[in-house]
Amino acid sequence: MKLDVIKLDGATAGSVELGDEIFGLEPRADILHRVVRWQRNKAQAGTHSTLGRSEVSYSTKKIYRQKGTGGARHGSRKAPIFRSGGIYKGPVPRSHAHDLPKKVRALGLKHALSAKLKEGSLVIIESAEADGKTNALAKQIKLLGWKRALIIDGAAVNEGFAKAAANIEGLDILPSMGANVYDILRRDTLVLTRAGVEALEARLK
């Protein structure tokens, strides 16, 4: 399918052919959910921790004699049943990451791109280049009506554009290898450069 290409000033710059095998799929929520869950679990720090019986700071002295008290037998105040004792089977630092086949990850990216195109939130621009001035770029973005946008460029991001975009709220830019399902779905508008389209098609074929 063909999609119009524009410049950052809003002028037209021809059109580009998008492959149906990448941009023309019927989006599947189950695949997108699997990939997003894989991404978020992988990013989770997993640093939650509690002190167990062997880790709490307390005297190891037997708290009272074994027999003759009429109460239960106890040997340590570190036991979980006591206040300030150790936590029984509490959380420990661990990785939340799990495996996901590469084919499913690639398919998830295709479905995310297709979803953006289907809902009319995909924009193709000629290139993402700027002189590093935030004010000038912010005016262009406002005229284009992009409030929460992700821009995906080719193999590398233009330094001047990245510098100018750094202080614009709601605008992110990534190279094609950094394109991922979570960042695509969480933004209202997905913007691809010509180089970005070519790089994504080469990556996903």
Characterization of this structure:
The chain has a six-stranded mixed β-sheet with strand order 2-1-3-6-4-5. It is elongated and about 95 Å long. Helix 2 (29-43) crosses helix 3 and helix 4 crosses helix 5. The chain has helices spanning 20-23, 29-43, 102-118, 134-144, 159-165, 181-186, 194-204; strands spanning 2-6, 12-17, 122-125, 149-152, 171-174, 189-193. It is an alpha/beta fold and 205 residues long. It is built from seven helices and six strands.
Unreliable stretches covering 5 or more consecutive residues: none
Mean pLDDT: 93
What coarse outline follows from CA principal-axis ratios?
elongated
Strand order of the largest sheet: 2-1-3-6-4-5
Helix and strand composition category: alpha/beta
Q: How far is it from the N-terminal to the C-terminal residue, by CA?
A: 16 Å
For the secondary structure, the number of strands is 6
- Tally of DSSP helical segments: 7
Helical amount: 25-40%
Radius of gyration: 27 Å
**Helix and strand element order:** EEHHHEHEHEHEH
Largest sheet: 6 strands, mixed
Give the amount of beta strand, in percent. Answer: 5-15%
